[in-house]
Amino acid sequence: MEKEEWDKRYSQNDLVWGWAPNELLVNEVSDMEPGRSLDMACGEGRNAIWLASIGWKSTGIDFSSEGIKKGMQMADQLGVEVEWLEADLRKWEPPESAYDLIVSLYVHMMPDEIGKVHKNAIAALAPGGTIIVIGHDLTNLTEGYGGPPFPDVLFTPERIAQDLDQLVIEKAERVNRTVKTDEGEKTAIDTLVRAHMPA
Q1: Which tens digit of pLDDT belongs to each residue from 76-121?
Q2: For residue 93, what are the domain limits?
Q3: Among 34, 58, 79, 83, which residue has the fewest nearby CB atoms (within 10 Å)?
């Protein structure tokens, strides 16, 4: 989906993803010492806002002006400070060595595009910094629930780890996530990769 489609989706009154942060992200980050964080393709900003609420100097970036607008409103309501950047990750050149934590959640693009995004993320990572990538796994097509129905944009742990092979890979695995639907609970399968830059 391109900017116009996301703007249309985010312009509705209700939050598309809700207030609560992603539970997999919470599990990975809760015990970390806060520093400077970047939420890539932050959407309505729920994860960037959560990071700010637990002490991170948080930045959220997205190409949807409507998503950013909602993020700003939500941050104001909760009384937390987030730096918001409106930009397309495919064109944005991040500052080098600027962030102690970079999170990329459900950012699905064609392999060459997402490869460039991950390369830029590595450049933006400070020494000792951590990157966490979470996305819909390829096995969702046959064994799980949700996510885009296009194999080329789905993740595998091996493929994402390969994108981040300049870093120290801490984990590269598939994880199950429970999704509530009108038909009851479903199981989604995600790729979760965590890596860090040597200090």
Answers
A1: 999 999 999 999 999 999 999 999 999 999 999 999 999 999 999 9
A2: 3-196
A3: 79
